[in-house]
Structure formats: structure tokens, C-alpha cells
């Protein structure tokens, strides 16, 4: 269901947002990269999105006929990692996904474990920051089911993902608990192909394509990001991209 935003409520929202930013009530609503001039624009976008999308509306879903004939595969399309290649040869039977951090029951999940959760299938548009987009059908488990299963701490704030090819990124709980945020193992009705991130690829539908990590190798629930890697929240920040890539 779409809700029309009146100009008045938009202005009210924007004012409230900048109010929140200005009062120094920074902690709960700012992306980890807010402490710079560049970060200010990102923080404003982030805070407005959190306000305007607070009812967690779904990203647009398409019908089967809209699925793109060719879906580009870019950046890493076949990780060079030896262990990865061995697991692939065994059809990922020995692959495990550690889920830990601020959770009551840390565990390592097999692909079968992930497939035992209720599945969700969605046809969505992937939007790459490099200017292309493509539509595909994704099947997987909602991240929120996995977070529930491991009993993520109720006050945890972010989920950090690491990948076989060294990529890492994080999302906040708002996006982590969104019904369309999936750990996918299927694409267009087939097993997820290697070039698109087998065995598990994250889908974060309301952010740009780079947040949808391929080859996910671990999940960590945290309440702060400053002690993770370089503290910026995402590998791509060092390449000039923003941590929050809301669309
Ligand atoms: N681990 C990992 N995740 C990744 C990438 C990558 O190279 N490695 N590229 C990102 C970018 S910029 C995009 S647009 C999409 C590309 O996904 P595709 O190859 O399935 O089209 O994956 C994103 N996730
Ligand atoms: Mo991208």
C-alpha cells in the first residue's frame, strides 16, 4: 500500500529530522560515518529514510515476466580462495556460516540448516551504483528469522557481514529485520550461481547493489562498529562510497 506524503508532512518530517540531528541526540539515528562533512549529507538521507520508511514498506516486487534475461556479474565472480573452491567442489555440503557476536546462542549453520527455515521468494530490482540495474527472483531465508533463532540481543544495533573475497559491510537492525532482507540461496528458480555469490548472498532491497553481499562467510551481531576493521562500517567506505546507500 502506498501512502501519499503531503508537502506539509514532508517538511514536518525534514524539520524533525534535522532537529534530531542538531540536538546531539546522535546515537540511535546516525550512520557510523557521520563525523565528517561528507557524512552529514549521508546522515540526513539516512535520518529522513528512517523517519519516512518507519513502517517498513516493502521495496517494489515484480512479476516473472519482468525478470532480466541477462543479469550482469561484476567485481568478484569466482573467489580465488582455496577453501572456497574445495567447498564448491563438494557442493557446499561442508560449508558452514558462523553467526555470533551479541547473540545468546552462537552457532554455525549449514546450507541445509538455512534451507530448513521457511523460505521467501521475491522478484526485485538490483541497482548498482555504477549505473545499471537488473531484475531477478531471489529465494532464501529472512535474516530476521536467523537472528531470532540465534537470539540476537534485543539491544544489538548492527549486523556485520564478511565475505570469502574480503568484502565486509554492515547494516543496522532496521534493515536487518526488514521482511525483504534475505540470505539467499536461490536465483531465478535455480541454485544461486557462483558468479552471483554462492552459496549465500545477502539481499538488502532498499539500498544500492553493493550492500547485497555475495559469498557471505560470517555474520556478527554488534552494538557498535568502531572496533570492526577500520571502524567505517563497510569496506567500500574507503573507496569513497557511503555506508548508507538507501534508495
Ligand atoms: N562479496 C562481494 N559482494 C558483492 C560484490 C563483490 O565483489 N563481492 N560486488 C557488489 C556490487 S558493487 C554489486 S553491483 C553486486 C553485483 O552482484 P552480481 O555480480 O550478482 O551482479 O554485488 C555486490 N556484492
Ligand atoms: Mo555495484
Bound molecules: ligand MTE, molybdenum atom
What's the pLDDT, averaged over the residues?
89
Instruction: Report, as a whole number of angstroms, the end-to-end distance.
Output: 18 Å
Task: Note poorly predicted spans.
Answer: 1-28
Beta-strand share of residues: 15-25%
Q: What can you see in these coordinates?
A:
- With about 250 residues, the protein is an alpha+beta fold.
- The protein has one domain (about 60-240): Oxidoreductase, molybdopterin-binding domain (Sulfite Oxidase, Chain A, domain 2).
- Helix content is about 25%, strand content about 25%.
- It is built from 6 helices and 10 strands, in the order H-H-H-E-E-H-E-E-H-E-E-H-E-E-E-E.
- The chain has helices at about 5-20, 35-50, 80-90, 110-115, 145-150, 175, and strands at about 95-100, 105-110, 120-125, 135-140, 160-165, 170, 180-185, 190, 200-205, 215-220.
- A 5-stranded mixed β-sheet has the order 2-1-10-5-6.
- Strand 7 (about 180-185) and strand 8 (about 190) form a beta hairpin.
- Helix 1 (about 5-20) crosses helix 2.
- The longest helix is centred in the N-terminal third of the chain and has 16 residues, at about 5-20.
- It is globular.
- Residues about 1-30 have low confidence and may be disordered.
- The site of the ligand Nc1nc2c(c(=O)[nH]1)N[C@H]1C(S)=C(S)[C@@H](COP(=O)(O)O)O[C@H]1N2 has 17 residues, from loops.
Amino acid at each position: 500500500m502506498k501512502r501519499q506524503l503531503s508537502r506539509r508532512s514532508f517538511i514536518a518530517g525534514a524539520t524533525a529530522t534535522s532537529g534530531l540531528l542538531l540536538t546531539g541526540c546522535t546515537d540511535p539515528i546516525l550512520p557510523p560515518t557521520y563525523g565528517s562533512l561528507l557524512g552529514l549529507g549521508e546522515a540526513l538521507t539516512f535520518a529522513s529514510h528512517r523517519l519516512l520508511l518507519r513502517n517498513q514498506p516493502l521495496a517494489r516486487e515484480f512479476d516473472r515476466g519482468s525478470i532480466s534475461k541477462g543479469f550482469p556479474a561484476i567485481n568478484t565472480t569466482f573467489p580465488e580462495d582455496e577453501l572456497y573452491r574445495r567447498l564448491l567442489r563438494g557442493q557446499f555440503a561442508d560449508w558452514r556460516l558462523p553467526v555470533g557476536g551479541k547473540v545468546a546462542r552462537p552457532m554455525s549453520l549449514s546450507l541445509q540448516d538455512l534451507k530448513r527455515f521457511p523460505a521467501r521468494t521475491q522478484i526485485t530490482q538490483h541497482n548498482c551504483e555504477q549505473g545499471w540495474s537488473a531484475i531477478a527472483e531471489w529465494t532464501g531465508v529472512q535474516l530476521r528469522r536467523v537472528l531470532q533463532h540465534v537470539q540476537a540481543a534485543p539491544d544489538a544495533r548492527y549486523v556485520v557481514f564478511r565475505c570469502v573475497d574480503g568484502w565486509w559491510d554492515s547494516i543496522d537492525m532496521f534493515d536487518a529485520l526488514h521482511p525483504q532482507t534475505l540470505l539467499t540461496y536461490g536465483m531465478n528458480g535455480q541454485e544461486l550461481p557462483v558468479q552471483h555469490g554462492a552459496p549465500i548472498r545477502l539481499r538488502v532491497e532498499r539500498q544500492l547493489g553493493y550492500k547485497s553481499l555475495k559469498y557471505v562467510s560470517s555474520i556478527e551481531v554488534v552494538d557498535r562498529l568502531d572496533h570492526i576493521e577500520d571502524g567505517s562500517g563497510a569496506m567500500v567506505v574507503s573507496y569513497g562510497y557511503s555506508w548508507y546507500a538507501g534508495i
